[in-house]
Specification:
Blueprint: E1 2-3, E2 7-13, H1 17-25, H2 46-61, E3 72-80, H3 81-87, E4 94-97, E5 110-111, H4 119-141, H5 146-149, E6 158-166, H6 167-177, H7 184-197, H8 202-205
Parallel strand pairs: 1-5
Antiparallel strand pairs: 2-3, 3-6, 4-6
């Protein structure tokens, strides 16, 4: 059995997201000329940055969220298959995930360890994992195809997936998955995502995980 840590890697994101989102949003008001001032010609000065934050904050507070759909981020995530089942319910995102139909775990069953409350829970879980790993290995050794042998694998089997979503959908995902009532694993994974996503568009994401 191989214990695997949850991970989130930001692979791709819209560059200069806040600047681009302001430019797009100002089409609604025919106010593109306000994106620069006498101190600069490209909206890069502190005065323009302050104005941009105020403008985008106003859109956010008015729930003009369609503007934020124009920015996109892709993450490579490592978690367990129970958590991937929850993630793929967010249907406005795109997913590509490692397949247990084709992958053979013949170098040790990879698992993401639960957040245990007691040592007794951990002992029971580890006993179950050894039984599952042994059954899976025996099926493979006997010639069972991985797509059949996988039925012996536990929910906590580790999986890798790529997720692409626009900022509006990422905000929706994080609002739900950072909540106190979310599953402990998905909440921890969401926090990893937020820490990498928020710096690229603080005006839209900063408020989601303050204090966590």
């Amino acid at each position: 059995m191989r214990e695997v840590e949850q991970q989130a890697e930001l692979v791709r994101i819209t560059a200069n997201a806040e600047h681009m989102l302001e430019r797009i949003a100002r089409v609604c008001y025919n106010s593109e000329s306000r994106m620069q001032c006498d101190d600069c010609n490209d909206g890069s000065c502190e005065k323009c940055a302050a104005r941009r934050i105020k403008f985008l904050s106003g859109l956010k507070s008015k729930h003009h969220d369609s503007i934020f759909e124009h920015a996109v981020a892709t993450f490579k995530l490592t978690t367990d298959r129970g958590i991937t089942h929850e993630l793929v319910r967010h249907r406005l995102a795109s997913y590509t995930q490692s397949s247990t139909r084709y992958i053979k775990y013949d170098d040790g069953m990879p698992v993401v360890v639960p957040f245990f409350r007691t040592e007794a829970e951990e002992r029971i879980w580890r006993g179950a994992m050894y039984v599952a790993e042994d059954a899976y290995a025996k099926m493979l050794a006997g010639g069972t195809p991985p797509q059949i042998a996988r039925d012996a694998l536990p929910t906590c089997t580790a999986a890798t997936l790529f997720v692409t979503a626009n900022f509006r959908e990422w905000r929706h995902i994080l609002q739900l998955r950072l909540a106190a009532g979310a599953h402990p694993k998905i909440r921890a994974l969401a926090l990893l995502i937020w820490r990498q996503l928020a710096p690229h568009c603080p005006v839209y994401f900063d408020d989601l995980a303050r204090g966590l």
